[in-house]
Amino acid sequence: MSFSRPSCLLRRTIPEVCKTAYQLRSRPVTTQTHRLALFPGDDFYSCNGHVACDTDNKRNSVDLKLLAQLQQDGSVLTAHILNRMVSSCAKSGSVFLGVQLHSTVIKVGFDSNVYICSALVDMYGKCGAVSSAQRLFDEMSHRNVVSWNSLISGYLQVRCPKIAIELFLEMVKVGIAPTHFTVSAVLVACWRTEDTKLGIQVHGLSLKYGFCYHTVVGTCLIDFYSKGWKIDASRLMFDLMPERNIITWTSMVAGYAHCQQPVAAMVLVRDMQRWGIRLNNVTYNCLLSSFSSSNDLDHSKQVHCRIIREGLESNSYLAVTLVKVYSECSSNLEDFNKVCSGVTRWDQISWNAVIGGLSNLGNGEAALKCFSKMRQAGFDMDLFTFTSVLRAIGMISSLEEGKQTHALVFKMGYGANLNVQNGLVSMYARCGSINDAKRVFSSTDGHDVISWNSLLSGCAYHGYGREVVELFEKMRSRVKPDNTTFLVVLSACRHVGLVDKGIEYFDLMRNDYSLEPPTTEHYSSMVDLFSRAGYLSEAEDFISKMPIEPGPSVYKALLSACQVHGNVEIAARCAKKLLQMFPNDPVIYVLLSNVLATVGYWDNAASIRKVMSDRGVRKEPGYSWI
Questions:
Q1: Which of 179, 226, 331, 393 could form a disulfide with 402 if both were Cys (CB 3.0 to 4.6 A apart)?
Q2: Are the C-beta atoms of 154 and 121 separated by less than 8 Å?
Q3: pLDDT tens, 86-137?
Q4: CB atoms inside a 10 Å sphere around CB 161
Q5: How far apart are the first and last CA of the chain?
Q6: Residue 384 DSSP SS3
């Protein structure tokens, strides 16, 4: 049996392995000056004890002196010792030494021993030399379940989940009964390939063999279902497990974080504490990653305090995650800077988190300064660095820096990356260089919805409304639009007065069940579309028929239009509803006062301002960006 393999993997045939190791073995051994000290008596037990000591103490390495000693003294080369040495090479990733051991195995006649050969397959797989593992597997006269498991894990190690699944199916066909290790590995392959149907079948197979509720298998099933957005199935699996360890609990927390359910993640963590399970840095990391909006700020601070109490604030991974959380949940730059001061280990990930955080907070200049410091410190840049930097450049409309960064993108070899290309389109569009944005867009292979949204947003932002409509029609035939797409298109329609087109697209969004339903922002855009065109009564009627509760942005859009068109009656009704919901919002008072002043009701406008002053409501003064 053979499978297709990527050409980039290490390719060694068994004769090549033997040749390499033979050349090494034929060299004079000059490192054996302390032979008697290392192996007193040269007996089997002393050598066996030395190997056991190396592996049991987790040194995870085999001493070259020990290998040379074993090559000279054939009497101690037992299957047990060789097996342990190969396993030690697998743990430490010592493929060079593993090749020498493979040659020794062939020399002493253990090349037909299924246990040693399985260990060698495992060693090659864990060292990334999966082609060598496959060839050795193909040459084995007898294979057990460990042999199959080792090769399946090897392909997973080198990110070839499809081949791992093919191996598993072949294994079942030849009648090899899987173990819980097999099932856990195949479940990882299923979620990497997004093969939900096969994953469910593997779940059924684990039920059949009776190890569905084994801790390792159960934890992998929790991971599989949550990463496939089936969080209810994941929780059911969690509840049915008779035994759970810290990894099981953490996997469930990570599942809630992945499915963006921070409250459920917090409740689960509290359950962990009630059961007396001590949270570790991985659990806290997963919990923090579930927080991504301003609504989660209080929870973020609670968890942060808990981390400090547990003495984990110096953990480098937690420090970076806290930087990311505060940039997404808080708009307070002071809090963000305090968290950044807690970062003790500055590597590529740390720099990326700070640059990305400053971009999220809208501080583009600080993000660019941080990027400059990162380069001066000698750290490599990756696609995450460039996407954050391009976003920061777009915020401050710094076209010259954008062009320099574009050149750096090509220099570093990320010019073909789709995420970076989308960032370039968005950056050029935000800077007003629409032609450059179109040029990058045209050179991009395999446009996704973000690519189209970036170009559409730039055109809409700079007033190319009719061009947005034309681009949207092209997009519909290639990529399925999302909520952001429709929001951009509706915004473009309202700015150029395309009322009929706006109604057409909104109805398309509302009636096509394959699309996401409209949100408050879409309804607000429609109200603004009617209002800008002077259809105030239609806008008010549209609000009354909304299937969701109108938000403040909906009424404010209509109230602003009332000022333009001088409609006091509708303005009064809108202001009344807004003040019932938000009595301390200064914008409502100012808009209503302006409407009254526009039509000449100066006394009424002054009385609104007086009510605003009496209630202690103050409008934040405006300021220029320049």
A1: 393
A2: yes
A3: 888 888 888 888 888 888 888 878 888 899 899 999 999 989 899 999 999 9
A4: 21
A5: 70
A6: helix
